[in-house]
Amino acid sequence: MADLIKKQFTNFVGLDLKSSDITRSDDFASDMLNAQYKKDGDIEKRKGHKANAESMGGFGLFNYNRIDPITGLITAELLSVDTKLHKREVSNLNVTYSGSDATSLISIFFDIISDEYKCQIQEGVTQVLDFSLGKGFDEASPITLSSLKTAIDALTGFAAVITGSTSTPAAFLDIVRDHDLVSSSLDVEAGYWSTPNTTISEPFIGSETNKTSVDFENTTAVQLSNVLLLSNGYDEVQKYDGQTVYRAGIPTPSNAPTTALTSGSITGIYRHAYRYVQKDAVGNFIEGFISPDSSPDLSASTQSIDVTVDNILAGSGFNTNCAIVAGAQGPVNIITVDDGSGGSHTLKVGDTAYFFDSVSGAYVERNVDAVGASTITVAGAAVTVADNAVISNNLRIQIYRNQNGGLFKFLVEEIPNNSFTSTQTLNDNKTDVSLGIQFIVPLTDRGLPPKGRYLASFNSQLVIAGQIESPDQIFWSDVLSPEYFPTGNNLRAEVDGNEKITGIGQTNQSFAIFKERSIDIISGEIESNNIRREVLTKDLGCAAHATIKEVEDRLFFLSDRGVFSLVSGQLPTEESFRIEPAFKQEGVIDSLRYKTKRAIAVNHREDQKYILYLPIESVTAGPDIESTSNSTLFVFDFFRQSWLKWNNYNLAGGSVIHQRKLYFTERRLSTFTGTVDHILYVQMASNDAYDYMDHDKPVNFSYSSNWIHLGEPSIFKTIIRLKVHSIPETQNNPYSMIVKGEKDFIKGFVVFNIPLDFNSAAQGYGLSSYGTTAYGDIAKQSAKHKINKKVQALRFIFENETHQENVSITGFEIVYSARFKAEIKD
């Protein structure tokens, strides 16, 4: 009988953990780690990641795309949450060369030999700088950009300029390979965190307090009306408008105004009321519900009326940044201020000051360009201000009054809120014809957003669920603003067993309410409360709100049985049936169980991957929760409908796609500091060898073929030779692999361990361009090795654990011989 050949080429379709080793199709892998498929079907390593900013946040990672209300310019911000909100900033290092050499090359890279990042500069043929950058963290004193700048400036003909923080670890700079400074200067970036203004010190303190709770989940966020709304279920819903973090919504005054007659010039029977209004940094007006009317009505006879109203006080969590003018001044741009008692004001650079300007004779808005301990500098023309005049961060109190004996109310004045004292008084001496616009009573009240773990949007309305006190209720905002929550805009999602809501999300024109074992669907017109609720299933639910992601018009989510998808009101479809056994936790010891409540998912739309992070946790002596190295990522390649398995991506602190790149924050115990750290990482995407490392570690690649038994699992056959094809060039081109062979369905029974070298075809120097392949040679497109093993079944395990090295497997062939009797032996 002649030898036969079996071929397997580019029709790889991911993991199949559900089929047996005998019945599994050869298209599927029996196991893998840190592999992915190219669009042409070749197997390669997954991309690595690199630290981008120091430890901060750890309770959620978010995008905020702020639209400037004046210019329309969109600014993409990357935000992280711990007890505060933090914004990723960028330090830019600019390097120039003014020397006379024809070339001057600069590189910033990880050096395998010295096990550290380095900056090297070569002037002509001479290396003039070999500067250690360390690793950026888990070091006593990370090397900063300032230190690197000093080293570069010390070289003749070279200069460095830093924009942004100079204390950023230099190891966080982007990778640079042989940039020629003669052709152009180098601009390279590293990230660091800044903290936006807050009106209370720690608006998300509940996350820190409850982080070891079994029910703890990361903060959730939704962008609506050009602001980011955030909630953790413990603290009040917070709002970030690009300038300040403060409590969402606006309160209704608890008390009616008090009024008293005094000397003046108006005559009539009057009553007053007032409400609070916040104009945020993107131009939204959040207008509260009006107070009760003053009582009794006052009869003024050539008099005026002092109207005393309650202020929203500092410490309430609302946007109460404020200053009090210290002495009459003007015309000036630098205003001397305090808090009314000689203490410090609370206005910040970038705030919008709202105050009365005697020059224009009106209340004005001015940007705050600078602040000092007792001064603020306002933009625009010089102003004149009175002693003790109030300047707020655009938080206002609108005071209304009826016309003589009338029912309707009209605006008397819109004054700045004084957050330093409980009340303030306005003297109303306006005639009826001088009053402002008429007050129109809103159709609904404007209650404050309730606390809740989960935020989502439904046709531009904010939906809140996961309330600790009422875990089976959802609440939705008024159509006029995502910050208004009228009484009655809520429903109880009850099924048998009184389950908690575990997640929410919009699916096309319906809205899904997920519980542990059931799903409800809401449809209709939520803005008019004309809605219909249906129980979709009582046998399937969602394990973690953070896994609910829209993927190609389907809503993906993690259940206790795996990953499912939902479209409108249709029954869910199981997406992870091929890897369903991976989600079975029966019999698994607690220290190795997935904490699915804190699972994280992200839709990497550019890579067409749904990435699901399943944490395995340990509690440190802190106490604190860390996600251990046993945690796993299952990745659904929805272009090829294939499941992959990765590790060493710690997404526990949150993950987002920001400007087309995958960012994530870890929750990792540092053996160096003894604390749980939250370093920010970015997935590598430079199409270079340096893409294939995890900051300072190699990407460990393993791909196990199906068990090859040729349809005869009981018949012996001899595997004579293996040939592996690698047609496309890898980014760094040369590489090698170890190929292991396991026999007869016994995992771990390795019968051979052979190297395959794709480093060079040894065609001779100069046959291809220098720098593309090793010494200009073309890469080998195949490698083969003798096997000569008699087996009933065999699987190949392709491995590569080499730093900064990719692989590319187009397919493989085996030569085999089955020259044995077709019989089953004992």
Structure report:
The chain is mainly beta and 826 residues long. It has four domains: 4-46 and 701-817, Jelly Rolls (Sandwich), CATH 2.60.120; 85-194, no CATH class; 258-434, no CATH class; 454-581 and 650-667 and 676-683. A hairpin with a 2-residue loop joins strand 58 (693-694) and strand 59. It starts with a strand and ends in a 9-residue tail after the last strand. Mean pLDDT is 93; it is low at 761-778.
Short account of what is shown:
This protein has 826 residues and is an all-beta fold. Helix content is 2%, strand content 45%. The two termini are 25 Å apart.
Q: What's the layout of helices and strands?
A:
Layout: E1 4-9, E2 31-33, E3 35-37, E4 43-45, E5 49-53, E6 61-67, E7 74-81, E8 85-97, E9 104-111, E10 116-123, E11 126-134, H1 145-153, E12 158-163, E13 176-180, E14 186-194, E15 197-198, H2 205-209, E16 220-224, E17 227-231, E18 238-240, E19 244-247, E20 258-270, E21 272-279, E22 285-287, E23 298-310, E24 322-325, E25 329-332, E26 334-338, E27 352-357, E28 362-371, E29 375-378, E30 383-385, E31 390-392, E32 395-402, E33 409-416, E34 423-428, E35 454-458, E36 461-465, E37 473-476, E38 490-492, E39 501-507, E40 510-515, E41 519-525, E42 530-537, E43 549-551, E44 554-559, E45 562-566, E46 573-574, E47 600-604, E48 609-614, E49 617-619, E50 625-627, E51 632-637, E52 642-646, E53 655-658, E54 661-665, E55 668-669, E56 676-677, E57 680-683, E58 693-694, E59 697-698, E60 701-704, E61 717-725, E62 736-743, E63 750-757, E64 782-791, E65 794-800, E66 808-809, E67 811-817
Parallel strand pairs: 15-19
Antiparallel strand pairs: 1-67, 2-60, 3-4, 4-66, 5-57, 6-7, 7-8, 8-12, 8-14, 9-10, 9-13, 10-11, 16-17, 17-18, 18-19, 20-23, 21-22, 21-32, 23-34, 24-26, 24-31, 25-30, 26-29, 27-28, 28-29, 32-33, 35-36, 36-37, 37-38, 39-40, 40-41, 41-42, 43-44, 44-45, 45-46, 47-48, 48-51, 49-50, 51-52, 53-54, ...
